[in-house]
What we know:
Shape: globular
Order of helices and strands: HEEHEHEEEHEEEEEEHEHHE
CATH class of the largest domain: Alpha Beta
Strand content: 15-25%
Number of helices: 7
Radius of gyration: 22 Å
Strand order of the largest sheet: 4-8-7-12-6-13
Helix content: 10-25%
Oligomer: single chain
Number of strands: 14
CATH superfamily of the largest domain: Peptidoglycan recognition protein-like
Low-confidence stretches: 1-50
Number of domains: 2
Amino acid sequence: MKKALKVLAILTLGIAVLILTTTSGDAQLIEGQRIPGFPHLSLQAQEVTDSSLTLSSACALKPVSKASKSRPVVAAVQTPVPLNRFRQEPNLVDQSKETSAKSALAYTPIEEVALAHPTNFGRRFVQDFYGKLANNEAIVVLHETVGSAQSTIDLFQTPHPNDNDQVSYHTLITTDGTIVYLVPPDRRAFGAGNSIFVSDTGQEAIQTNPDFPPSVNNFSYHISLVTPPDGRNDATRHSGYTRAQYQSLAWLVAKTGMPESRITTHRAVDRSRQRIDPRSFDGEYFLRLLSFYPKTQEISTQCSTPAVLEE
């Protein structure tokens, strides 16, 4: 009888450990608090090791008040970041374009990585500052740099601990069509401040900082065209962008799988009435080029879950 009770006790303990181990995979314990798990999203595993914290694809649960958090000193990433942290292997979405895309697929731009400083980008949030679910569909926002490619990269790679100074795009396209990846697509670039996207369902924006107006940054993929030399001023127009830039832009946007209804400009989303970029942009020409490329999901703005407690 004693042996039977002993065996029963061991079995009960084993089952309890098994249940605890299983459920711990559906939640996250951070600073003593268990955060409920979110549905797992499809995302390729990262190949970054030394920079795994800075470059992790994890969402943040919600913004945290500045008064209640202390930020560690953030260092620049020193190890090389692989291209597949910014763009994965193709997964064709629109099979009907496969034939017409053959000639377009012959175009392959040069791709480079110039990671922005970690102070100039952050995690995407699952909730806004007030705890409301932030589940907007992604959009592409088109910009121009106004400055040169190098000055823009230098600005983004400079540490900016002050929120007012933080700025970045996900990607920029130089005048020769080179694509430069700056911020991983599943992270939040600081490309638009006071901004709202108007869709068929209404106005879309997420407030992630109580000190600033709502913006589209939490669900945006920001792409900027390098401005030609004659446009590096406050004029309302310039000579326009090169054919190589339009070609690379169409190639890149197609890899986000974004529908045309979710492609917009900084000028269109800006609510400060100060942004007019990209100036002299030929939207019809861009959309015509875009139509030749098949939509894929090589670039995904979807962050992964479970989310970390704060950002």
